[in-house]
């Protein structure tokens, strides 16, 4: 469900997209799946290429293709804007390689108290 258009490589980086899917379990309980899909550079899909007579420069070659990746948050609560902000925060930390442990960030997000329905956010 997190790649509704199919999983395909792209020759250019696409903008991140966000959407929500609602799944219903056997007990008719809803689960809200917030998905943030982004495209990440795939540098070397075929292994190292060796060219005769050329030395490796040590530089990372530019990406030739971009592969989709998805961050998914599943909840029984319907707070799409809050979940979008949470996934956006995780995405920013991951993409910008900030000095924050993803495990710590996710643990902090999971330990947040969620207000009762109809209350203030």
From TrEMBL:
InterPro entries: cDENN_dom, DENN_Domain_GEFs, Tripartite_DENN, uDENN_dom. Gene3D superfamilies: 3.30.450.200. This is MTMRD protein. The keyword Cytoplasm does not apply. The keyword Metal-binding does not apply. It comes from the Eukaryota. Residues 1-121 form the UDENN domain. Keywords: Guanine-nucleotide releasing factor. One of its GO terms (molecular function) is guanyl-nucleotide exchange factor activity. One of its GO terms (cellular component) is cytoplasmic vesicle. GO terms for biological process: regulation of Rab protein signal transduction. It comes from Oceanodroma tethys (Wedge-rumped storm-petrel).
């Amino acid at each position: 469900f997190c790649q509704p258009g199919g999983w395909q490589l792209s020759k250019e980086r696409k903008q991140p997209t966000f959407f929500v899917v609602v799944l219903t379990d056997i007990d008719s309980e809803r689960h809200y799946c917030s998905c943030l899909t982004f495209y990440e550079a795939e540098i070397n899909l075929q292994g190292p290429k060796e060219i005769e007579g050329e030395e490796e420069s040590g530089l990372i070659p530019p990406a030739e293709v971009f592969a989709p990746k998805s961050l998914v948050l599943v909840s029984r609560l319907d707070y799409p804007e809050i979940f979008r902000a949470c996934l956006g925060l995780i995405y920013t930390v991951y993409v910008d390689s900030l000095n924050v442990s993803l495990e710590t960030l996710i643990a902090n997000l999971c330990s947040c108290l969620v207000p009762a329905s109809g209350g203030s956010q």
